Structures are given as structure tokens and as C-alpha cells.
Batch of 2 targets.
Target 1
Amino acid sequence: MSAATRKQSSIQRAKTNLFRYRKIGSKYVVTNDHGAYVFLDEAELTLLLNGRVKPGTPLAEDLTAKGFLVTDADIERIAADYDRRVSFLYRGPVLHILVVTLRCNEVCRYCHASRASLEQTETDMTVPTAEKVVDMALSAPSDTLTIEFQGGEPMVNWEVVTHIVEHGLARAKDLGKRVMFSLVSNLSLMDEDRLKWLLEHKVQISTSLDGPQDLHDHFRKIAGGSAYEHTVRWMRRINEAYRERGMDPDLYHVEALATITADHLKRPRDLVDEYVKQGCRAIFLRPLDPFGFAKHQTERLAYTGRDFLAFYREAFDYILDLNRRGTEILERLAAIFLTKILTPDDPNYMDIRSPCGAGIGQIAYNYDGNIFTCDEGRMVHQMGDEAFLIGRVDTNSLQEVVTHDTVKALAMASCLDSIPGCAECAYKPYCGTCPVYNYTEQGNIFPQNPTNDRCAIYMGVQDHLFRYLMDGDPQVLDIFRRWVEVKERPEYLHDHRSL
Ligand code: SF4
Ligand code: SF4
């Protein structure tokens, strides 16, 4: 049998793989479980649906290359592609969030953490609890872990932050692991000595920046001054300190997160411009979480998914325009989806993966030693509901925590293959659902997608991205490719694997 005949007969034996589709403009985006996509017109989709794609045609070749038509020879390659996409499942909890205090020196209208006042020192994590937390976090099976300091304002409990880093480094060395530390701070308690210590100990620094001064200061109050001025002054100083140490400013700069309120929806360009002005290379346009104080102030803060999408599209198109004109800034929500759409990898963003990271990808440790599926589960606890409590550092092992019935329930509730609506959705290979959000908003850890705002937002964002991909403007495709490049930041990494 000639090579040509062999190829022809293998195409003839091709079977149609599981696929899903959705209409975008005049075409359909068709996707499969291992994340490949193709745009088909109605006639082509009908051929695929009816199993009548003619072997040897360019359409058959394209569908075979992308795993929509499968022969026995393709099975191993497709299984390997799928395995790579869900490789996060083999790593266990890699993100360990430590709430070292609930105390905070700022008062934010939407506070997710349900802060405590500066006098409430009983909400500080103690040194013995901190050591137990670090020992549990580092007992996770992955050889690379991130310890993230949250609050409250973590710098209020500075002694415990520094002790955790030092204890964590000693344990990582004993165990031969790689560890990263990340501090999420409003920066108002920063000083030169603390900055020097953080730089010497390679602690990554992130902050909250809610847009221009009037917006930021409207939502974040600090006694005797402007919260915005504290934040941007230290953002500039920290970025300058990175440059003084010869660190590449494209890789090393303060990362900022915005909380998007109803007021922000009217000012998408102002928000983006502020991020560019402060030297940020990324902005994360995430909808407001309905947890913490924000839950009680919904009239002043909340909005519908439709309102958020209108804001998102305007901000996103503006960000693309800036990039076209030479200002490099990426939008993180888009970059998460695009990484899944355009590359063989999953970026392991805990809230947009299937199943989500609750307990199996991340764990949150409260100041008092209570352990939660994630920081959002802890915030629900602060509102008086223990649904996401999965153990205590002084009485449970890591194995007991990650195999807790609540962790299993959340994994089931966020596994999109079994969720009505998601199981048939073209965006299933790239999407995620949040059981804590669903529980808080819809009274059930399983989403009710037709009325779920988060689903509407994710669907709208992915529609927007696929429209751009279908248009195929080379300049936009080039920007998207830059956004999905993986950039290592070794200066934040303590690598003890070979010691
Ligand atoms: S429950 Fe929600 S917040 Fe928690 S890890 Fe899952 S998606 Fe993220
Ligand atoms: S959450 Fe919505 S957009 Fe995402 S896969 Fe499910 S149905 Fe599709």
C-alpha cells in the first residue's frame, strides 16, 4: 500500500471527536475538550455534525490536525494534549494564603476581608500559629509553592510576616523546595527599612489601585490623609528600588489590583489611564465579589453582569488601542482565557479552571488557625457562615484538609463537564465557575447558569475575544501572542531544590 493510500484510508477511518459550538457573527466557533478551536461557516458545521466531511479536503485536514476528526493514530497525541491542560491536578495546593491579621488602617467601602479596627489585636496571627501554618503549607506535595500575605493589612502584623518568611525559607531549605512570597498591601505602612527587608528577602509586592485619586479616595479612607497618595508614592519608590538593583522594569514592578464598583463602570478609560500612569504593565478587570462588607452595601456598589460587560468591552478596546500605539499593557482576565485558547497550557488561575482550586489548588489560613477552601470561603466565614471551613492547623493534617468532604463537594460543583449549561457550552474548555460565588448569590454551590451573572460575564468576555480572533487583524493577534507569553521572574524565587 502506498503512503498516499495509507493516509487516505486512515482519514476514511476518522471518527468525529466530541465538540461544541457557538455562533459568533456570521460563523461558528467550534471547540473540543483539549482546547483546540476552529471557525466554521454553516455549511462546514453541517458537514461536521452529519459526519460527512470529505476525506482529503482542506477542511478534513484542518479538522484532523486540531483533533476534531480522530484516527487511532491521533489518540495518544490528543490524550497527551488533554493531560497537559489539566496538569494542575497533579500538583496539589500550590497557593497558600495567610491572613496574618484582620486589622487594617484603611476603611474601604467594599472591604472583602471584613476588616477589624487597629485596636483589635486579638485578630493577629501569633508566632506559634504562623509556624504551624508554614509547616502545613510546605508539606504540600508540589516542589514549588507560593505563600501570599493577605489581611486586613498584613504590614500591621509585620513581626509575624518577617517570621513566616524566615521560618518558611528554613523549612524550604530542609525540604529542598522552591518557594515564593507575595505581600498584598495598601503600602501605607511601608518605610525604607521594611522595603529593604522585603527586597533582600525577594518578597513580591502587590497593592490595590482603584483608579484616579478621586475614585480611589472615595472608596478607601485613611485617617489624616489620602490613601491614594500613600499607595502611588510607594508604588513609584518600589519600582525605583527595583531599577536601582538592576532588575528589568518590564518584569519587576508593583502589581496592582482594582476593585470595580458601579462608579468605575462610567469611567473605563480613566481607570486604564491611571494604571498606565503608575507604570503598571497589567490591569485585571474583575467584577466585584459579593463577599464581606460589599454584600451589605450592594445598592452603592453593585451592578449587573450586562453593565459590567459594557464597561469591560469599552475598557478592553481602549487597552488594545493603547497597545497598537506602543503602550504595552495587558488585561489579565483576557490573558487568562487567551492562554487557554492560544496555547497548550492552563495558567492555573484558581477561579477559572475546572475543577476550581478550592482546597486542591489553594488553601486559606485564617489568623486564628482555621483553614478554608480559599480566601473567598474565609470571607463567607467572616459573614457568619462556616460552610467553607475545612480544618484547623493545630488539629488536622494537610491530608485531612484536602480530602475534607467540603473540598470534594466544591470540586464536583466546579467540574464543568457535569454542570448543565457548561457541559454543552463551546467555552467549557477555557472557563470556570466559583462555588463560593454561586453559594452566596444563588444559594447553591452548583451554578444556575441562565441567571448567573458570572457566567454571563465570562461568556461575554470570551465572545469578545473570539470576535477579535475571527477578524484576524495581524496587529491584534500579535498583541494577544505577547499577552500569553510566560515570563519567569527568578528574582522572586527561592530555589532550594538542588541544595
Ligand atoms: S470556590 Fe471560588 S474563589 Fe474559591 S477557589 Fe473556587 S473559584 Fe476560586
Ligand atoms: S460558566 Fe457559562 S460561559 Fe462558562 S462554560 Fe459554563 S455556561 Fe459557558
Note: The radius of gyration is 24 Å.
Target 2
Amino acid sequence: MAVRLNLLSLRRLHMPASPPPSVLVMSAGSVPGFAVLQALRADGRLTLLAADMNPRSVGFRLAHENFVVPRADAPEFVPRVLEICRSRGAGYVFPIIDEELPVFAEQAAFFKSHGVTVIGNTAETVRITKDKYAFFKRCQELGLLTPRTYLPGAPELEEASFPLLIKPSRGRGSANVYRIENKKELAFFSSYVPDAIIQDFVEGAEYTIDVLTDLKGELICALPKVRIEVKAGMQVKGRTVGDPLLVEYARKVSRLFDLTPRVNIQCIRRGEEIFLIEINPKFPASLPLTVKAGLNLPLLLLQLYQGQPIPDPSRGLVFDLLMLRTWQEFFVADGREPQGNA
Ligand SMILES: Nc1ncnc2c1ncn2[C@@H]1O[C@H](COP(=O)(O)OP(=O)(O)O)[C@@H](O)[C@H]1O
Ligand SMILES: [Mg+2]
């Protein structure tokens, strides 16, 4: 509470006279989309617009106005999003899910030319982080420790020691990720997992670090969270960690990869060694923990893009904050008709 009051009072000090903006949040039915809307509601002056291709999206319960949009790969997607922004005077759009990230990254300049700022990462960041094998190669070039990675059938696999781990190079949400104990399993999963890569299995504590940089890429704040329990690729139990080593690690990784303005870094710590597993250029499903711990990433990003000074969020962060998650239900009276404006 103290942290929130602090942020609000600082924001009030720096708020220009212009009216509070309207903001469009995509994929309102997804876990991170819902979390972004919830985080933005901390500033009651914002007008929140929500979009999703599913007219029964739970995030539609949180916004002032809702819009049904086509799939992100449809030709009508970009014109439709722009039309929503222009008709409602929305100056900012938050992309949320993987399917949208490349579209918004590639069209950011186009949106900008129409007065709409995309609050997302660069096309280069989206590209290099999407393909896990290309990402591994890049880590090697940059001298960053990452699990040794092989393509199926690589001769070096003969000498690799078990356990190994197999996953799709373009996967997400831990889908098709398997630990492999022996040659027989390796042969089976190599043909079962599409587009597979194989890695040394790293035993250790797994962290996700939420990172906010300024628009030049300098770290503003990094908040590590230990993943205590994960279901379907999402943190259902997690805890914030006040570890300066992980913060410095996030600073180093952000600089090396030129990451702006926010990412989520996944790594595994084994003793003093930190293995980089993945960089996700999107809001994590565990965003509510980040926000509750004092780092309201969506609001801070909005301030950043509005050209407002950012108060140093690091000072008010709450560490050792444990998040326990469950389902949450919304009941819609007379809910037979889909919600949202077509
Ligand atoms: N080399 C590895 N060693 C041990 N665990 C791993 C390794 N690679 C991935 N994992 C585990 O699998 C999960 C999913 O892998 P990740 O590379 O993050 O793919 P996804 O895109 O599906 O999230 C990670 O969160 C981690 O728990
Ligand atoms: Mg991951």
C-alpha cells in the first residue's frame, strides 16, 4: 500500500496538464492480458479499451469498452486495431501474446505515423527470442552461459550425458518440453517433438526476472522471482527475491541483447553459475506478483512513453512476497449474448 501511494503521489507531481490517455490492451482474454488491465486500473483516470478475438473474454470485465478483433495474422487485423485506436482517441496499445508480438513490432512505425504508440519490444528482439536455437547461437557469440544445445541427430549428442531436455525451438508455455533419461527416450522424443532442440538438463532454482529499461536500454529496475510451482507453463506459486546478483545479471543481459523497454528473463541458477534459458519480450503470466511487489510495469511503461520521469521503483520493492494462485470466477447476468463490440 505504501508503495502504491508513493508511486501515485510521484505520478501526480509529474503528470502534465494533458488529459489522461486512452489505452488499448490486446488479448484481454489471456492471463497476461487480464493482468495488464488489472495493473492499469491502479490509475483510475485512464480510459481502458480491451480487445480480443473471443467475444467472451474475461478481461472485458475490467475495461471501459471492449472490441472483438480478427486473428493477429489476418490482413484485417492491423487496420481494425488502428480504427479502434483512432475512433476512441487511444494513443497507446499493449500487445500481449506471441501471435501479436511480431505484427506490432513490425508495424510500430506505421502505428506511430498515425499517432499510436506500440508499447512493445523491437522487431529484432522479437525475432531473436522466438527461435530458441538461434537464441542459443547468439548467447554463444555474446559469451553468455546457456545450456549446451544440440539439434536432433547431432554427432556431439553421442558424448552428451543424461539427463537431457528436449523442447520445440519455437515453443512456448512449456508445451512439448520433456526431460530425457536415456538413448531410447532420446530417439523417441526426437521424432515426437516438432522442430526440436535438445539441451543439457540444468538442475537448480529457476528464476524469472522482470526487467524495465528506459527507452535507450538502460536498466531502470529488475525484479527476480523464483518459480516455486509451475502448471501449464505458468507460475502458480512464486516469490520475489532480493538478490543483487540477479539484478546485475539482468542488467548485463539487457545490455548485451539491447533489450528495450521490458522483457522477462528466465534463468536457472546452479551455485554461482547462471544459465540463461529464455528471454520473453512480453508480460509474464506472473505479472500480478510483480505489480503487487511494487513494480507496476504497465503503468511505468505508460509514463515512460509519455515522456514522464520515472520514480526509481527499486527502492520500494517488496521481497520475499509469496504468490499463491487459484482460479477466479466472473459471473455475467444474462450472459447468453457475447460481450464486446463487434
Ligand atoms: N536446459 C534446461 N534445463 C532444465 N530445465 C529446463 C531447460 N530448458 C527449459 N527448462 C524448463 O522447461 C521450461 C520451459 O522451457 P523454455 O525454454 O522456457 O520454453 P517455453 O517457451 O515453453 O517457456 C523452463 O521454464 C524450465 O523449467
Ligand atoms: Mg519459458
Note: Residues 266, 278 surround magnesium ion (ligand 2) (CB under 6 Å).
